[in-house]
């Protein structure tokens, strides 16, 4: 019996010392257990040694130098166990003096978390959060999660609503575009998307469609950037099955037109041509016609897109405005002009399209390529406005239905918004070829074109991360 009592006392002593080391982080239940063990150990010391009970830095000062060490043990023990605060009916102790463990107690921290908290406390850097603050923080997190889910659900709903407005056939002004054959290939980092701007409405296809917008956009890369490369349409390339073997004798935009004449495979022949000449793999394509572009801009930005209009010299003379062709307002075969002034302004979809297509200044097609990139960057930047979340989703759905593309629903929903908002790292742009970095030449039909160094630009594409 004595041996059992010794083991019990040893276990109680070890438990007491453990609780003492973690005194600042005890739950209410553990605090009650600590108080019980402290009193029991003090009483046991009085019984065995008639010495002052064990004291810690955390005890009160009920014991001092005037303590009578010869006091009878029974009187000393009674003085501990008969205190009102110890045997109070509301203290929830058992008949044996142990604290009652209730289910409502909060969960204990993990051993690792308490150890880290104790270490931080000793260094003076830790400040334990109050219970109310923890509850308030958890509540805020919970409601933030609910709000995020509701917002996401709303965006998905608006996306499919916008798409259904077109694909349902109820809107007689529009027809859903066909998806072309496209044998896309994965790239090493992120996803490459071929973007083509067609001058005709893409519904059931058109063998006469042309493109002066040829871009490859990379999203989802490790740099967390949107990377954009524009290709000048007059660049001399070798088109598989069209060009003379071993010669660069066709303009790049010819690949789109020739492919469209072959069962509407313009995007696929453009993919093959870019792979053949620049060794770049492309997973998806999007063919956006000019009317769809203008309508999408007006849907996203009812008040217009803010942009700083810039033009090069015209015939060597600086200009403060230019006359640009207004193709969307063509009537009876006559294309009117629209005046666009230099400087910061708001443009609607039609004006923004005309600005991006203009090439009659001294920079020619290179200047047009720069303006196309400027327009894309402005749209990506300004669509970050939270008010565009739902109207933007509806516009995306509408564009998706009107656009010939092989981009899947899931990819667009998971990557489309991040692409439109420029990712976390912004937009990185490049033009091929760079300004003046070409030799004037002629294509196989005698038209003026640009001869470039393909090895050089393949290296640049690798450095940008698109190969």
Task: Quote the beta fraction.
Answer: 5-15%
Using only CA atoms, what is the Rg? 38 Å
Name the poorly predicted regions. Answer: 50-91, 101-107
> What is the number of beta strands?
14
Please state the second-level CATH architecture of the largest domain: 3-Layer(aba) Sandwich
What name does the CATH topology of the largest domain carry? Answer: Aminopeptidase
Whole-number tally of structural domains: 2
Distance between the first and last residues' Cα: 81 Å
Secondary-structure element sequence?
A: HHHHHHEEEEEHHEHEEEEHHHEHEEEH
Q: How many H/I helices?
A: 14
Strand order of the largest sheet: 11-6-1-2-3-12
Structure description:
The structure is a single chain. The protein is an alpha+beta fold and 467 residues long. 43% of the residues lie in helices and 15% in strands. It has 14 helices and 14 strands. A six-stranded mixed β-sheet has the order 11-6-1-2-3-12. The N and C termini lie far apart (81 Å).
Task: Present the secondary structure layout.
Layout: H1 2-21, H2 28-49, H3 73-81, H4 84-87, H5 111-122, H6 131-167, E1 191-198, E2 211-219, E3 226-231, E4 236-237, E5 250-251, H7 254-261, H8 266-278, E6 284-289, H9 290-300, E7 305-309, E8 321-325, E9 337-341, E10 343-347, H10 349-357, H11 364-382, H12 388-402, E11 404-405, H13 409-420, E12 427-432, E13 439-442, E14 448-451, H14 454-464
Parallel strand pairs: 1-6, 3-12
Antiparallel strand pairs: 1-2, 2-3, 4-5, 6-11, 7-10, 8-9, 13-14
Helix pairs in contact: 1-2, 2-3, 6-12, 7-8, 9-10, 9-12, 10-11
InterPro entries: LytR/CpsA/Psr_CW_biosynth, LytR_CpsA_psr
Subcellular location: Cell membrane
Family: Belongs to the LytR/CpsA/Psr (LCP) family.
């Amino acid at each position: 019996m004595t041996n059992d009592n010794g083991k019990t006392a040893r276990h109680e002593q070890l438990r007491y010392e453990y609780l003492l080391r973690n005194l600042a982080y005890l739950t209410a239940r553990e605090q009650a257990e600590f108080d019980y063990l402290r009193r029991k150990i003090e009483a046991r010391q009085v019984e065995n040694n008639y010495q002052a009970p064990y004291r810690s830095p955390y005890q009160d000062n009920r014991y001092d130098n005037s303590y009578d060490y010869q006091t009878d043990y029974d009187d000393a023990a009674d003085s501990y166990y008969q205190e009102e605060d110890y045997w109070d009916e509301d203290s929830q102790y058992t008949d044996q003096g142990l604290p009652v463990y209730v289910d409502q107690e909060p969960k204990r921290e993990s051993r690792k978390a308490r150890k880290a908290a104790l270490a931080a406390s000793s260094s003076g850097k830790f400040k334990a959060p109050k219970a109310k603050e923890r509850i308030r923080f958890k509540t805020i997190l919970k409601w933030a999660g609910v709000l995020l889910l509701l917002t996401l659900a709303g965006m998905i709903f608006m996306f499919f609503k916008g798409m259904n407005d077109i694909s349902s056939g109820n809107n007689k002004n529009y027809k859903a575009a066909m998806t072309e054959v496209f044998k896309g290939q994965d790239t090493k980092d992120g996803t490459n998307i071929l973007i083509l701007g067609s001058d005709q409405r893409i519904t059931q296809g058109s063998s006469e469609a042309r493109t002066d917008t040829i871009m490859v956009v990379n999203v989802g890369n490790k740099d967390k950037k949107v990377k954009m490369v524009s290709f000048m349409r007059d660049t001399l390339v070798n088109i598989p099955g069209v060009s003379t073997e071993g010669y660069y004798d066709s303009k790049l935009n010819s690949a789109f037109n020739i492919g469209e004449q072959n069962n509407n495979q313009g995007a696929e022949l453009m993919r093959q041509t870019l792979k053949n000449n620049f060794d770049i793999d492309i997973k998806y394509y999007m063919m956006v016609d000019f009317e769809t572009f203008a309508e999408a801009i007006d849907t996203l930005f009812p008040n217009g897109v803010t942009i700083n209009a810039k033009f090069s010299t015209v015939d060597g003379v600086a200009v403060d405005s230019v006359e640009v062709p207004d193709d969307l307002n063509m009537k009876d075969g006559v294309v009117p002009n629209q005046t666009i002034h230099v400087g910061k302004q708001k443009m609607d979809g039609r004006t923004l399209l005309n600005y991006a297509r203009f090439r009659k200044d001294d920079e020619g097609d290179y200047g047009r390529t720069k303006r196309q990139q400027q327009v894309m960057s402005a749209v990506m930047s300004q669509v970050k406005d939270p008010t565009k979340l739902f109207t933007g989703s509806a516009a995306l759905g509408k564009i998706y239905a009107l656009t010939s593309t092989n981009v899947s629903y899931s990819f667009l929903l998971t990557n489309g918004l991040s692409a439109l908002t420029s990712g976390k790292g912004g937009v990185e742009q490049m033009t091929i070829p760079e300004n003046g970095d070409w030799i004037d030449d002629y294509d196989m039909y005698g038209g003026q074109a640009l001869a470039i160094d393909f090895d050089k630009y393949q290296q640049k594409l690798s450095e940008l991360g698109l190969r």
